[in-house]
Design a protein that fits this description.
Layout: H1 5-17, H2 20-27, H3 31-45, E1 50-53, E2 57-60, H4 62-82, E3 92-100, H5 104-118, E4 121-129, H6 131-139, E5 145-149, E6 157-165, E7 168-172, H7 185-188, E8 193-196, H8 201-211, E9 219-222, H9 225-233, E10 238-241, E11 256-260, E12 268-275, H10 282-297
Parallel strand pairs: 3-4, 3-5, 8-9, 8-10
Antiparallel strand pairs: 1-2, 5-12, 6-12, 7-10, 7-11
Length: 303
């Protein structure tokens, strides 16, 4: 048996979806066809590409990661050859992009609209994830790129800095600290603190406080950024965040006061991340170019 492009496409679909059923649905083929192609490819290569785990889908083996990196390069080259005679500079193909869940509603729609206008042939699959899932999926090769804060990214990841943001305090509109132009970390720690509970996020802010010799009076962790804003807006604590949507109101309509932190804290970076082995992807390069343009011309969150 010779390796065919079909074998590579089927294997990459399983890599993207970590699941034969979803890969089959995406390619509009039967599950047995996917399974047979994977078995044939593994038999020809003489090594396992995937670990089958009941209830956890398909995970690439170390050899599988190397093989799928090469498969991506081969299919990308074939795609470029097929479109060599196309007029203009528009690209086409599929791109799997993850975005940190707090950033996604505020950055992705306009960014993807611009990418579609420039390259209507690029089809982008979107995953909204926490930091831990972004790191895991970048590491196992199921993503082409991720838009995220620079937290929890695995080794072997190449990042492009899109912008840098300063931390700010979230306060109920009638809070005494809201009368100030800026708020210190020490002042915030005298009140109940509300942070989002995503992996790496709350630890990051607690590390900043510890660096300044501080700890909060009490800590509440929420599963979402909007619940954090809602609790603060309703007087149940104060918050720290980098993300700031347009319009300082919680979902239930309560007003929020947003103030800068008086201490000189490190800025947090928003980055586009990809595996170094994907650095020659024309589709990711097109996404990066669009992201740099969008973040460069638009104040993020109105700042």
């Amino acid at each position: 048996m010779k390796i065919s492009l079909r074998h590579l496409r089927y294997a990459l679909a399983v890599t993207r979806h970590n699941n034969i059923t979803q890969a089959a649905e995406h390619l509009s083929v039967s599950q047995p066809a996917i399974s047979a192609a994977i078995s044939e490819l593994e038999g020809h290569l003489g090594q396992m590409l995937f670990i089958r785990q009941r209830g956890q889908g398909m995970t690439l083996t170390p050899f599988g990661r190397l093989a799928m990196d090469k498969a991506r390069q081969i299919l990308a080259g074939v795609h470029e050859l097929e479109h060599l005679a196309d007029s203009g500079h528009s690209l086409s193909g599929e791109l799997m992009l993850a975005c940190f869940e707090d950033l996604a509603p505020y950055c992705l729609p306009q960014l993807l609209r611009g990418l579609q206008q420039r390259h209507p042939g690029i089809k982008v699959g979107i995953r909204e994830c926490g930091f831990d899932q972004i790191g895991k999926q970048l590491g196992n090769g199921s993503l082409d790129a991720a838009l995220s804060y620079d937290l929890g990214l695995p080794d072997g990841v190449q990042t492009t800095v899109l912008c840098e943001l300063a931390a700010h305090a979230l306060l109920p509109s009638g809070h005494p600290l809201a009368a100030q132009q800026a708020v210190s970390l020490g002042q915030l720690c005298k009140h109940p603190l509300v942070l989002t509970g995503q992996a790496y996020s709350w630890q990051h802010f607690l590390d900043l406080l510890r660096f300044h010799g501080l700890q909060p009076q009490s800590l509440t962790k929420t599963q979402s950024f909007e619940l954090q804003r809602g609790l603060v807006a309703n007087g149940l604590g104060v918050g720290l965040a980098y993300t700031r949507p347009f319009g300082d109101h919680s979902y239930d309509g309560q007003p929020l006061a947003v103030r800068p932190i008086s201490e000189a804290l490190p800025l947090q970076r928003i980055v586009l991340a990809q595996l170094q082995s994907h650095s020659d992807s024309q589709l990711v390069n097109a996404l990066r170019e669009q992201a740099l343009q969008w973040f460069g011309q638009s104040p993020v969150f109105g700042w």
